[in-house]
Glycosyltransferase 2-like domain-containing protein
Amino acid sequence: FQSIINISPDYDVLIIDDNSTDGTKESLKKLSLANCRLTVIHRPRKMGVGSAHRAAMIYALKNEYEELVTMDADFSHSPNTIPLMLDQLKTSDFVIGSRYMKGGKSDYTGYRKWISLVANHVARIILGIKIHECTTSFRAFRVALFNSLNLSAIKSNGYSFFLECVNEINCINVEIAEVPIHFKDRFHGESKIPKTEIFRSIYKLSKLFLSRFYKKQTYLINPAEIKSSCYLCNNQCVVEVNHGNTNNENYEAEAYRCTSLEHKSKPQVLNCLICDLSFVPESSYPKDIETIYSEVQDLTYLENKKSRKKTFQKSLVQISPYLPDKGHLLEVGSYCGFFLESFQKKYPSWDYIGVEPSKWASEYARSQLNIKTMTGTLEDNIKALASDYEAVVAWDVLEHLKDPLAFLTQINSIMKQNGVFCFSTLDVDNWFPKLMGKRWPWLMDMHLFYFNSNTTEQFLNRAG
């Protein structure tokens, strides 16, 4: 940081810390407090160097900077080259620091040297890139370029991002230049590039080569056009991961049934490059979602009640080791009451109650199963509920809520100290949604949030 500021005190510096565990985080906190020109963004988990660079690009765009320089922070790239790159940027849209043009140099030795040389040479040939360097992260951009370069469409989060980014820039017909650099090997530690990244890069290069023979249609919105901020961390570094085809004027209760097969309509989904939360932007929410859920009727669910009960019995087996011999249990989103019916049989000494927004489902639970159930949302009923539940359960509820953080905070407020909260929700890091992509069946209008284990943990920590 000081080396950059010494070149020009007018530079602003952004550091994106990818959940470092070597004390870097604490050092950066102290440094940022003492320097108004330094902004530090700490990410809660390692999300990849490509993801960090995309976040930096969007940050520069949203904060209306004119130029952006990206580089490694381990002195592999010399800050003294920055003025040369910015000078070249006056007549170019994109400048890359090159190890392989005349005057460039790399300290790589052994297999790393030859892999880098061959990879850059092959990429230049098969992708039609005229510069000598494709993979270094030492780059300078005119930020206006990001209005044309669709960062939502660049998918690579690892080191293959650098190759994909250069290819996309090459395809939009802008001025590209390179300046010679001396790439110095790391002063401390070993390279963070995993060997598996070599195979990912080969795969990515093959895909980029094949894409030259067919017109790739991108329906994802450029981050320059996205006005939404992340629900969880309020950052604007978001990209679109599913464009969606929802007509939000035609929401009906039938599409919000538990057994809904409304899979043709898909929501717009954004992903935060800082905290990794995937979410539907608030502007796409139905205005009367509580009313929609209150009007849900689901006869198909009753027809499949045997399989539903088996599912809940398995859930009971999973949570039983965490439950005391007796106590009070609340189920939020209890629907027709089948879980509470199974719970009553297994734990007759417990008191229990359900909360369910569907008027039809809550009435079924009361009249047909004799399950005590309150109609409405948790917020509607929280004043009438106890404040000392030993256990609260919410099966497949979080992803439906407009404000899941407020919901979890309310749950925390009505649980006993050391109480148990059991829940299930979507996991977008599972192999199945990754395999299915935009055809994943649970990509539905009724689902407003798409969690993974890390974002779920962040929500729970924030709610206490």
